[in-house]
Amino acid sequence: MKAIQIRDDDERSLYWTDVERPQPGDGEVLIKVAATACNRADLLQRRGMYHPPEGTSEILGLDAAGTVEQLGAGVDDLEVGDRVCALLSGGGYAEYATCPASLVLKVPEHLSLQEAAAIPEVFFTAFTNIFLEADHQPGETVLVHAAASGVGTAAVQLCNAFESPVYGTASSSKLNFLRELGVQEAIDRHNEDFSARIDALTEADGVDIILDPVGADYFERNLHLLARGGRLVVIGLLGGSESEISLGRLLMRRLQVIGSVLRSRSLAEKSAIADEFRRRVWPLFKDGTLQPVIDRVMPIQEAQKAHDLMFENATIGKLVLTIDEE
């Protein structure tokens, strides 16, 4: 089969070439991939800064959508030919990928495989961190940073679906899109002080949950904005990893700071998350309440260009890469 590989050069450039086709192990399925999607984790892995979990594919790609090609031993809830999407630990940038059956979702007929490829990583991430890690309760207010990103657009939609007021930060060119997506207020992250703006919007009461991929640059302001009993979930370090914490505020307001990753969790943990996702979220895709946000669709041979666009923050939602059968 063919897959994207990383050249050992200064640019760590990407190329499409022949590699060995994987085989499904016990409890796994082999997926003939029709589409995959780009995530920021791919950029980090390409630069040698985010290694795949031990025993998983070294090939980039945390999403896949396609058809079941082969069943491993013990898989009895899927059939060859089923249209599926899957949350991967790696291997999505390829013609074939293996995945534990517990992390595979059957794709509703009204969704294309290109659309389905834009769902797993970002919606699992948003759901895990807002609804499980932060223990979201009905009606709680949520602030989503980088709200026009893949995870951000998923988080905004989930908050809307579960009737929680949601605020979002993004660059100025993306604010109108966020308003259309359903945020209460869209805040310009470059030209506005999001902390002062949220204070004004909430009459200094703050928000219950903050989903943050930025880290150190936003840390102090995020703590300031948490309501009593509020939870900050840090899912990325785009703005640095070193920061000070006000323990007094943490104690007096009973705040929680939660660090969270998804990819390196055990299969048992991810399978439990998938079960909750299948029960609470997947029906909202089936009835059309939730929809993946796709910036553009590109052939997988243009993965390098897709990475450049993502690095430049020039996209809204997901970049999907398609794989031609020929």
Features:
326 residues, alpha/beta, Quinone Oxidoreductase, Chain A, domain 1, Rossmann fold, 2 domains, seven-stranded mixed β-sheet, six-stranded parallel β-sheet, 11 helices, 30% helix, 26% strand
Oligomer: single chain
Number of domains: 2
Give me the CATH architecture of the largest domain, please. Alpha-Beta Complex
Instruction: Enumerate the spans where pLDDT stays under 50 for 5 or more consecutive residues.
Output: none
Largest sheet: 7 strands, mixed
Note the gap between the termini: 11 Å
Which term fits the overall shape? globular
Based on helices, strands and strand pairing, what is the structural class? alpha/beta
Q: What percent of residues adopt helix (DSSP H or I)? A: 25-40%
